[in-house]
Structures are given as structure tokens and as C-alpha cells.
Amino acid sequence: MSEMSYGEIAKNGLWKQNTGVVQLLGMCPLLAVSSSVVNGASLGIATLTVMALSNLAVSLIRNLVPTEIRIPVFILIIASLVTIIQLAMKAYLHSLYLVLGIFIPLIVTNCIVLARTEAFASKQKALPSCFDGAMMGLGLTLVLACLGGIRELIGKGTLFSGLDLVFGESAKSFVLTVIPHYRGFLLAILPPGAFIGLGMLIALKNRLDAQSKRAAAQPQLLHA
Amino acid sequence: MKKGIFQTSLRTSLIMLGFVVLTTLMLALTYSRTHDLITRSEEQEKLSLINEVLPPGISDNDLLRDAIEIAPSELLGNSTPVTAYRARFRGKPVAVVLEATAPDGYAGKIVLLIAILADGEISGVRVISENETPGLGDYIDIAKSSWIKGFDHASLSSLPDDAWHVKKDGGKFDYMTGATITPRAVVKAVHKALEFFASNRAELFAQRSKK
Fold this sequence. Notes:
The complex is a heterodimer of chains A (224) and B (211). With 224 residues, chain A is mostly helical. In chain A, 71% of the residues lie in helices and 2% in strands. Chain A has one domain. Chain A has helices at 6-16, 27-33, 37-60, 70-92, 94-100, 106-109, 111-121, 126-156, 164-167, 186-189, 191-223, and strands at 158-159, 176-177. Chain B is built from two helices and five strands; from the N terminus they run H-E-E-E-E-E-H. Chain B folds into two domains: 1-53; 57-206, no CATH class. The interface between A and B is medium-sized, with 28 and 23 residues.
């Protein structure tokens, strides 16, 4: 793989190769925690941290590891990073840990983390690798937050509920009740809502891509 | 050639070993740095839940240290030993906080924290964990509705046995249409916990604390 510019890396992670809506990797946490903006974004940020750090670590040791054992070594690094983040979260963000705790260890099994260390970090320099992990993670975070927002809005009529779990009691006032006296729409909160919402996000992205393609193709046609 | 293979395997396994040692060290370091904080936050969380079910200022002892284990009991619905906390004021027992499990929720077990005053009156009930349908059966959670406060001040002497049901079954407790299985399970579990307290009262307070 030749060297990529930071701009390209960012574009890949956020749009072209987005893990949530293009590569469709890491569906397990995606579907389980995207029931609200706060839950989705929090797990997204945890994944982002793991990806940036594991890409950085793997890139730094890439010349030390023989090819035969690279996968076990990568997994070892990812698993320890996840455990460290889990312990840190349990110690410093305990109330958030109560909500997301059971999903944090699942980051280890999220194939996107291993995929990026193998496909990118094992062949590239440290800084671009770290940046790639962060951008891929950010792309996932955005999808999780969007999906969480859609499900929360349709399911409960609020946005940002549970923000107090992250920022303490004072953040309770930031919760937006978009639709007052809303009776709720259960389907959006339950797992099927995640599948339907994700399907719609993918459709939206494909439509936007098709539109920009057509827009790019049109001037050429006029000249011809 | 043979020697080559041997040397390569040795080198590879030594590198692997090196990484195992390194990551284990990192984990051990993080664990020891966060351990105290984690224990403290866990205790804090337990204490704040206990304080929710007990009237403020009722006790002057350290509840988390005045704890006993209760062996699996049919009345409490626990399959493994659970911890009970005792509240005392100037050494005199005033209340006990214990965990009870309702095995027959709509979606599995519902675990409750129940505080019972020394005279057998309920001081408060809270749900510790439940899996009930969001928006339907989860009104037993204090975050969703105040339904669970309907147990406050209830006792075996204030309510006859046949009142310990939801209104639909001829009892005294409210329920919401469309979700009766959940409150039914909770009412039954609270009732049985009171029966457990009534028959084990003396022993609950007399037992030596485990810590």
C-alpha cells in the first residue's frame, strides 16, 4: 500500500469506507447500544480510542513482529487496550459504565479494530496509522450517534437523554424533549428499530453518493 | 535446514512471550492503579441505592460493614447467597435492607432491593435489575414512574394476604393495562420477602456481620 495523505485517510474513515454504513463491520455494538444518542456516541468514542491506540501500537511494533504471529500479537494488544479502557471507565465514569459496561469487552471482538490494524497499521507509519484509527472510529461514532438520535427521537420523543450519566446531575437540563407528551414508539427502541434505522442510513448515503456522481458526470456530457 | 526451523520457532515464541509479558504488566499496572477507585465507586453506588429506600437519618452505623449473607431461600427467590445490610441506631436494630428476586417477570428475573423497618413495615423498594419491555413493563423502575412507591408503609399486618395482589386479581396494588405480568411478579416477590422477614427477624439482626 502506498502512502496516503491525511485528507484521504479522513475521507476514507468518515465517508468512503465508513465502518458503520459501508463496511458494515461491528454490527453487534451498533445494534445493541444505538437506542439513544448518548449511548451510541459513548460507545463510539470508546471504540475510537481503542482504534487510535491499537493502530498506533501496532504500527510502532510492526517491524518487530514476524508475519506468522502478527494476528495473535495484534489481538493481544487490542484486548489489553480494551481492558485498560474498561477499568478506567469503571473507575472514572462509573455511572456510564453501568449502562455500557457489558458492551465494552465486545470492542475486542469488533472485527473493525483488527481489520484496521491488519490492513493499515501493519504497513504504515505510526502517525498516519493513529490518525486512520481515529478517523475510522469517528466515522463509526457519527453513525452510532445518528442512529441513536433517530431511534431516540422516534421511540421516546427526546434527544440526549442520559447525558447526566456522562457529565453528572447538572447535565440533566440539556435533555431535549422534542415531542412533549409523546406516548413512545416501541419498535424504534427495540432491536428491529436498529436494523430499520441502519437500513435507512445506508440508503441515504447511497443516494447522496449517486447524486454527486451524477452531478460530476453532467458537465462532461454538456461539453461532448 | 532443521536448525533453521528450530531457531525460527524459538525466536518467534520468544517474541510472543515478550509481548505477553509486556501486556500483562500493563494490565497489572492499570488494575492496581484503578482498583481502589473502583471499589469506592461501587460502594458509593450501593450506598446511594440503600439511602433511597431508607428514611434519612434513621441509622448511625456503617451499613456496608454491617452485612450478612443470606443463603438461598425460596421466599427470597435467590439461587446464590445474597447480602443483607442492617441499619442500627445506637446499637438498636431499626431496619434491614435485603435483595429479593422475582423469578417470574415478563422477561426473566427482576431483582429488587427492599428495606424493611424493624416493626415489619416496608420503608422502600427499588428495582436493581430488570429486563421488562421498554415503555410497557418498565414502569416498575423509579426512573420511569413512581409505581414502586406504592409499597411504602405496607406491611403484613396492615394488609391481609389476599390484598397482596394487583387490582386486576382482586388485590390492592395498581397496575397498567397491557402490562400486568410485571407488577404481579413484583408484588408477589415483595410479599414473600416480608414473610421471610417475619419468620427470620430475630436471626437477621442477631447474626454476626461477615466483615
